[in-house]
Design brief:
Elements: H1 6-14, E1 24-30, E2 34-38, E3 46-51, E4 55-60, E5 63-64, E6 70-71, E7 84-89, H2 93-96, E8 98-104, E9 112-119, E10 127-137, E11 149-151, E12 157-160, E13 184-187, E14 209-211, E15 219-222, E16 229-233, E17 239-245, E18 262-263, E19 266-267, E20 283-286, E21 291-292, E22 309-313, E23 320-323, E24 330-334, E25 343-348, E26 354-358, E27 362-367, E28 408-412, E29 425-430, E30 434-442, E31 445-446, E32 450-454, E33 460-463, H3 468-481, E34 483-494, E35 499-509
Antiparallel strand pairs: 1-27, 2-3, 3-4, 4-5, 4-6, 7-8, 8-9, 9-10, 11-12, 12-13, 13-14, 15-16, 16-17, 17-20, 18-19, 21-22, 22-23, 23-24, 25-26, 26-27, 28-29, 29-33, 30-31, 30-32, 30-34, 34-35
Length: about 500
């Protein structure tokens, strides 16, 4: 199906592993609620640490650099389980500079979004803040967002989404193949037609959906040695589970992992049709909180853990390991690491070195005395040509590919009553970041044109102004009639150039 990682495996075998010792943890820096970390392919000096609040930092040669690589904190929702949740680098990041983030947007619909950004041309330790929306999905509840994106061994971008939140999948998303919640998705991040992505050939349903029946696959990974797929799916009230699909069986193409018909290896909260071919987990355990799925260790510098899958329960401190196998995993036991709580991710850098990321503020590398050899992952195949020609990703710094213009809401504020200064106040709210131009008139008075920028879902108060003569006329009109109609026309333009024009007739009165 895809080429193997034989180069990486041969390199690993050629490196003599050091003598076994108890693994230790070495700090690479302190952060504000770090939630994920990753490295670009073949960049052996940088680790990028994602903070839940919306910032990404560079750790270069073991030292955290001053100044954030990317700061989109104004666009990220952080209530409940929301936040900036992960980062993935294009397989051709060295030349294209393209990378992608998975986040929950601070807008009224709580959109799950994949956004594309570009490394700064002037400074490899900074990103261009201009991005584009590749994929989005409304997600009104604040829990069960999923959380991980990765490029697969096929060069495509893979996403795992939660079921939409609530208890027991109340919206019926996970088993509905026409919906993208509660699913494993596979997309080509290059824009196509009116969408910001392309559905790759080989997807089983002709949509981004690759596999179904997931509850909240917060952390999942590809084994860099075998290219197998491993998903940690957070359970409900009964079981936490680890799902596993080998590369040789198509990486779970078309599989149904069972939620909410099943939870772990037992029945789930929904009474689904019996006899469905659900895929059982290779490991499950009585729920203690929330499983944080991990990685299969391929760092030859960790001989006590190499080849074993690391995972933990978020609310426990004992990091566990096991050997993955079908139909069930084997030899599940403690990993022998120092206890750590609130582990949000197990991370790998370009060399396969392993890190623990804790929301408590720490990112630590797992070491076994020696530093360990650098084993690079095999290069994915080049992306196939899109219909109409062209194989390159979107132009660096390109703008959102969606064709939806921002929606704007306009109101007169309670403090918008007219005083002698004749400066009515209005509030503006938009569904996405945009620039707005405001024109207004009342009682035959044309107010001064105003311009400002809006953040998604964030209210902004704007004071409209008139000339001195016009202000006196407006104040007298309000005094005489007690209430006057204010006509407000707003032109909103998003980063893609999509334009929406809105006009509202509002009532203003004397203070």
């Amino acid at each position: 199906m895809w080429r193997t990682t034989s180069v990486a495996l041969l390199l690993a075998l050629a490196v003599a592993a050091p003598a076994a010792a108890a693994p230790a943890l070495t700090s690479v820096g302190s952060f504000d609620a770090p939630i994920y970390a990753a490295s670009p392919p073949r960049d052996t000096s940088r680790l990028f640490v994602v903070e839940r609040g919306g910032r990404v930092w560079v750790v270069r040669d073991g030292h955290k650099l001053a100044g954030a690589f990317l700061d989109i904190s104004g666009d990220v929702a952080t209530d409940g389980e929301r936040g900036l949740l992960s980062i993935a680098f294009s397989p051709d990041y060295e030349s294209s500079g393209l990378f992608y983030v998975y986040m929950v947007a601070a807008n009224p619909l709580g959109d799950l979004q994949v956004r594309e950004y570009h490394r700064s041309a002037a400074n490899p330790d900074r990103a261009d803040p201009t991005g584009r929306i590749v994929w989005s999905q409304a997600h009104l509840r604040s829990n069960h967002n999923g959380g991980t994106i990765q490029f697969g061994p096929d060069g495509m971008l893979w996403i795992a989404t939660g079921d939409g939140g609530g208890q027991g999948d109340p919206d019926g998303n996970a088993q509905n193949l026409s919906r993208q919640l509660g699913k494993l998705l596979r997309i080509d991040p290059r824009a196509s037609g009116s969408t910001g992505y392309t559905v790759p050939a080989g997807n089983p349903y002709g949509s981004p959906v690759w596999a179904a029946g997931l509850r909240n696959p917060f952390r999942w990974s590809f084994d860099r040695g075998t290219e197998d797929l491993v998903i940690g799916d957070v359970g409900g009230s009964v079981r936490e589970e680890i799902d596993y699909a080998r590369r040789s069986e198509g990486l779970g193409r078309g599989l149904n992992f069972g939620w909410p018909c099943r939870e772990g290896v037992g029945p789930g909260p929904s009474d689904c049709q019996p006899g469905q071919p659900y895929r059982d987990p290779v490991f499950d355990y009585p729920t203690a909180g929330a499983v944080t799925g991990g990685i299969v260790v391929r760092d030859p510098g960790l001989p006590t853990l190499v080849g074993r899958y690391l995972f933990v329960d978020f609310y426990a401190s004992d990091i566990r390991s096991m050997t993955l196998d079908l139909p069930r995993a084997r030899d599940e036991r403690s990993a022998g690491l120092p206890p750590r709580s609130s582990i949000a991710a197990f991370a790998e850098d370009a060399c396969g070195h392993v890190y623990l990321v804790s929301l408590n503020g720490t990112v630590e590398r797992v070491q076994d005395g020696a530093s360990g050899a650098c084993v690079l992952r095999a290069q994915p195949p080049p992306l196939p040509a899109l219909p109409g020609g062209g194989t390159q990703p979107a132009v660096p710094g390109s703008l959102p590919a969606d064709r939806t213009a921002p929606r704007v809401r306009i109101r007169v504020t309670r403090r918008g009553r007219i005083t002698r200064s004749a400066r009515p106040r209005i509030s503006l709210t938009a569904t996405e970041p945009c620039r707005v131009t405001i024109r207004a008139r009342a009682a035959g008075v044309k107010l001064k044109r105003a311009r400002t920028s809006l953040r998604a879902g964030r209210r902004k108060i704007l004071r409209l102004r008139a000339t001195r003569r016009g202000g006196r006329k407006l104040y007298l009109a309000v005094t005489r009639h007690r209430r006057v109609t204010l006509v407000v026309a707003v032109t909103a333009t998003d980063a893609a150039g999509n334009v929406r024009r809105v006009q509202r007739r509002l009532k203003i009165r004397r203070a």
